[in-house]
UniProtKB/TrEMBL annotation, chains A, B:
<keyword id="KW-0378">Hydrolase</keyword>
<dbReference type="Pfam" id="PF22580">
    <property type="entry name" value="KYNU_C"/>
</dbReference>
<comment type="similarity">
    <text>Belongs to the kynureninase family.</text>
</comment>
<dbReference type="GO" id="GO:0005737">
    <property type="term" value="C:cytoplasm"/>
</dbReference>
<dbReference type="GO" id="GO:0043420">
    <property type="term" value="P:anthranilate metabolic process"/>
</dbReference>
<keyword id="KW-0663">Pyridoxal phosphate</keyword>
<comment type="function">
    <text>Catalyzes the cleavage of L-kynurenine (L-Kyn) and L-3-hydroxykynurenine (L-3OHKyn) into anthranilic acid (AA) and 3-hydroxyanthranilic acid (3-OHAA), respectively.</text>
</comment>
<keyword id="KW-0662">Pyridine nucleotide biosynthesis</keyword>
<dbReference type="InterPro" id="IPR010111">
    <property type="entry name" value="Kynureninase"/>
</dbReference>
<dbReference type="InterPro" id="IPR015424">
    <property type="entry name" value="PyrdxlP-dep_Trfase"/>
</dbReference>
<dbReference type="GO" id="GO:0030429">
    <property type="term" value="F:kynureninase activity"/>
</dbReference>
<comment type="pathway">
    <text>Amino-acid degradation; L-kynurenine degradation; L-alanine and anthranilate from L-kynurenine: step 1/1.</text>
</comment>
<dbReference type="GO" id="GO:0019441">
    <property type="term" value="P:L-tryptophan catabolic process to kynurenine"/>
</dbReference>
<dbReference type="GO" id="GO:0009435">
    <property type="term" value="P:NAD+ biosynthetic process"/>
</dbReference>
<protein>
    <recommendedName>
        <fullName>Kynureninase</fullName>
        <ecNumber>3.7.1.3</ecNumber>
    </recommendedName>
</protein>
<dbReference type="GO" id="GO:0030170">
    <property type="term" value="F:pyridoxal phosphate binding"/>
</dbReference>
<comment type="subunit">
    <text>Homodimer.</text>
</comment>
Amino acid sequence: MADFNRTRALFHIPEGVSYLDGNSLGPMPLAAADRAAAVIRDEWGGQLIGGWNSAGWYVQPRRVGDRIARLIGAGPGEVVMGDTLTVKVFQAVSAALKLASARRNVVLSDSGNFPSDLYAVQGLSAMGAELRVVAPEEVEAAIDESIAVLMLTEVDYRTGRRHDMPALTAKAHAAGAIAVWDLAHSAGAVDVDVTSGDADFAVGCSYKYLNGGPGAPAFIWANPRIAAEAQPILQGWMGHDAPFDFVTDYRPAGGIERMRVGTPPVIAMSILDAALDAFDGITMAEIRARSIELSQRFIAGVEAACPGLRLNSPRDPMARGSQVSFCHDEAYAVMQALIARGVVGDYRAPDVLRFGFTPLYLNEGDVDRAVSIISEVLDTGAWDRPEFKQRQAVT
Amino acid sequence: MADFNRTRALFHIPEGVSYLDGNSLGPMPLAAADRAAAVIRDEWGGQLIGGWNSAGWYVQPRRVGDRIARLIGAGPGEVVMGDTLTVKVFQAVSAALKLASARRNVVLSDSGNFPSDLYAVQGLSAMGAELRVVAPEEVEAAIDESIAVLMLTEVDYRTGRRHDMPALTAKAHAAGAIAVWDLAHSAGAVDVDVTSGDADFAVGCSYKYLNGGPGAPAFIWANPRIAAEAQPILQGWMGHDAPFDFVTDYRPAGGIERMRVGTPPVIAMSILDAALDAFDGITMAEIRARSIELSQRFIAGVEAACPGLRLNSPRDPMARGSQVSFCHDEAYAVMQALIARGVVGDYRAPDVLRFGFTPLYLNEGDVDRAVSIISEVLDTGAWDRPEFKQRQAVT
């Protein structure tokens, strides 16, 4: 059985903080700095260029990918790390467009998708892509034979609404479309299974629920049934079948490694590797069950204590990821007041208070303390101060 | 005057090693591990998501870019960091294709370019790009009015041959083409000046002569005369004019920041930031002069002591970057034998022994020791052993 007291002890949470923003940036694993220092001193410092072989840097993107594969229902050798999530979205969608019928060019997404995914597709208009955006609840009806690619983020970054991956993917396939899933708010948070869901491509980042640190590398998976045909328009030497032959013509590697582009971020990926130790011996089903317990407790507590807040997430936990959001007209100032009191969630425009539930390091005490402080801030109007209304560069 | 004894003391070079491979991976600055640990513990650990504002993570790609700008002749605010070099090549060439005449689609490059740059353009065939590759010495003659984009790496990764950036750029402009320069083997090594050279785009990596560590982020520069028009097909939220408005439609940021894509690699970039301290108080003209001294000494020494080696680099230092290569039929085994004796250069297929000269941490003693050991390995045939002929994954 999962021991969440053990995992909680693996992370540093500053004194006095209830950290409900691990869905934006996971906290620091206590092992992170030592791991980084070891890689820097022993591998880079001691082995220099030889580290590509002797320290395993070259195979690291696939070795770490295997650790994430287990968390998303993929098999060994099916996931590779690198770049950022938007780059991986760009690769997946461009590869999907090439696999789709040549007579189709529409990429269907929804207005709840993270904007960067939409921007990536807008850029692909140069290869003829046409982005079609509908409301999240209209996606299912909008899947028809005009669609080349269905591109969705499974869990909505604002509301936490969770799409039904198996059902939407099945409908996309029946219509002859390719399904690309962004797991940014899924990986390490919910019991996603790309294999039984029969997705075509899945991508995600590793600095949220996977706790890899600010700007940690992204991952990409392609279904084995198409991995050897998939060809993104963004390609580089590390995805070549024989990178060190230095030949002039690109020839993609056999499987998912073709999605590698340039030199991988060795030190950052080592920190992520250390962070993934927290998942050892725990199943995603256990994490998911615990996440639902904590989220339900939070919703019940807030609704009982804070009549001024309106739930902005699905009430049914099966239709939700691992975050809960509430709306308030002065959400920005309210969140700043909460942060000042050590309850760290975040604000999303225009009126969303967002809270993430991450069983690896949160427990009932955090939830109850957060409820109590939210209630106090709203009851006393403590948010109504100029310093809480002053916008910062990154919000 | 530049004090290269001071800079040498800033790096860790293992005992018994003459490191002539800083053109592949720069060595570890002694400050690297402590800087990484400080960013991990104090910023990520202590400030959590707040680090984007309070620790300056959000502006880091431009702040560090400013430090590199000085080394390549660019102005403040003109360079931004992120991704890997191949991604930046892809962005620059795709943006250049859009700026070029709509009637042109040819990207001209040469067979001495690093293959990943060629692969990036081959991927862009999806937007109509046609790659044309000629021999390095034929580039000038091949620039004509059929060319949309001239894409060259200034310093050849195998031979060290240096293209004449101002002359080739001027010819490209006269023909109505856009010039994209890859500075992978230039930045921090030679006195490149993108401003007086009037390049349109310049890109580079930071793990070679800039010593940022394995997989350190890349940089991109656009000439201010076009930066506000340039639009790569790979675009993401961090390059949006208002990323935190989370709007559905992409609207590029005003200047070079539009080349940002996803969440930047904060920890890796902090290590690079620490590494760049070595360049403080030194001009690229000083580094270049010292590089020529060391390279000339090496060539003279090898040619006097090793009649079996053939110089594979231009003899004129003005036509060369900061590396020197020699050919030998058994180059792979010879290099392994050298590495076993602490002379670390590298091998490039099919027959190249490559040595980089990096004044920040190399001196005459390293050069003379390398010459002596190369001579000994060749004279004694010490390379002719099975263990030196066994190929490794990364060569």
